[in-house]
Amino acid sequence: MTTASADITMLLDAARGGDRGSLDRVLATLYQELHSMARRQLAGQHGHTLDATALVHEAYLKLIGRREAQFDDRAHFFAYAASAMRSVVVDYARQRMAQKRGGDLHRVTDLPEDIEGGLRLDEETLGLDTALTRLAQVDKRLAQVVELRYFAGLSELEIAALLKRSERSIRRDWQKARMFLLASLRDEPAG
Description:
The protein has 191 residues and is an all-alpha fold. The protein contains eight helices and no strands. It is globular and about 45 Å long.
């Protein structure tokens, strides 16, 4: 374990014990990583009020607002961060769709292998969120891989390192999750 990882683990332990200052230090320490995740997620989104900094700050507010939020380690922290980012992005997409007043909704039938171009902040994100909620009811581990990949923008290699699993097992989980999500998205009624 590196010194930085050991420091974060100690801070997470203190945060778990109720020390809010330790959680703030963890967030400050990992801010750049969170910001990079948010930038990847929002790549190509121009003209929106949600930018990477706003996404990180909103996710932070969600993280500190969760009384039950306890982070056992770095992987657990990033899983919570990905979930918080997902929540912010989905809320933002819902607001945008409400402003469009039921604009052209269409059925989502594709799920790209990666989000190099960023997530679309529209009904596709809402459909993905619904399908991901269904997946979490069936297999939480697969849903976590999707959250880390799509909503945190991590690669399979990064997810494997974070979850202390092989890249091959993460790839298999991703493929299983993707098949489930695609089937779920195709079965979902359009608007």
